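Propose amino acids for all 279 sites.
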């Protein structure tokens, strides 16, 4: 039976054909199969896994080689320094979405009692992160998928976010006549013919990714609706593709929003846009 070191070396070689981080993937999957941490693997490289652990690792490795994301295989993903449960019914939280949280927190006063809506919450990563960072606010998270909402509620309970509520519904339809200081969302914005849909993200829910031929359908629906649920002087904050900034800004301006500002990610690509509803 192979040792930990041998399993990591062999599996890393296999994963190099499909992953930009083969060694990391191998360590995460083997640690999962053994029920230990990655540091345990480094400390005991000559340990020999039990047969059932070896078999579990083999099954995980085969799924990864077919392209299934590591986050789904592990059932978790780190976001904003917290661990969130994920499943194929939700998008996998991504580092670029942390920019959305960062920009939202820059708007929300530390001791404010703002009302915040997160539309299409998925795993709840945005809503829960904001709720925990600003515990006096009231956050409402919506999603059209009941399975996603159950997972988000589970994440909120486990992480201790008591100031967030979850509502089933299509975007703002679940909010009725409620009024908010901030509406934040990471909607679908991938074009239907985008070649990336044939890659690893094909395992993620298409309803949370694809938005028409140009990727802008969700914005066309959402932006006019947000005016109905925002307080005068309230803000909307949208994540979008890095080639969509101008189109999103135009839609916001056409809907009557002002102070439209685009923010770039760490690689200098425009990834989120903020706007204000005139008082």
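Proposal:
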């Amino acid at each position: 039976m192979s040792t930990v070191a041998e399993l990591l070396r062999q599996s890393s070689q296999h994963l190099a054909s499909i992953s930009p981080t083969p060694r990391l993937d191998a360590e995460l999957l083997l640690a999962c199969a053994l029920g230990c941490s990655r540091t345990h693997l480094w400390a005991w490289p000559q340990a020999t896994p039990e047969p059932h652990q070896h078999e579990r690792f083999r099954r995980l490795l085969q799924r990864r080689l077919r392209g299934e994301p590591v986050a789904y295989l592990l059932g978790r993903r780190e976001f904003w320094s917290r661990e969130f449960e994920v499943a194929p019914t939700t998008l996998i939280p991504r580092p670029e979405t942390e920019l959305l949280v960062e920009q939202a927190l820059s708007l929300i006063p530390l001791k404010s009692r703002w009302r915040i809506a997160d539309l299409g919450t998925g795993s709840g990563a945005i809503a829960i992160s904001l709720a925990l960072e600003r515990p006096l606010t009231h956050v409402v998270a919506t999603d059209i998928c009941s399975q996603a909402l159950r997972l988000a509620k589970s994440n909120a309970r486990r992480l201790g976010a008591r100031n967030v509520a979850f509502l089933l519904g299509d975007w703002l339809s679940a909010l009725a006549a409620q009024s908010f200081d901030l509406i934040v969302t990471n909607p679908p914005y991938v074009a239907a013919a985008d070649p990336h849909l044939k890659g690893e993200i094909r395992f993620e829910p298409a309803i949370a990714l694809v938005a028409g031929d140009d990727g802008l359908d969700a914005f066309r629906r959402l932006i006019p609706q947000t005016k109905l649920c925002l307080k005068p002087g309230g803000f909307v904050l949208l994540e979008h593709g890095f080639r969509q900034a101008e189109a999103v800004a135009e839609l916001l301006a056409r809907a009557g929003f002002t102070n439209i500002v685009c923010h770039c990610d760490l690689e200098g690509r425009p990834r989120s846009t903020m706007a204000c509803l005139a008082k």
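Residues 51-65 form the longest helix (15 residues). The longest strand covers residues 230-239.
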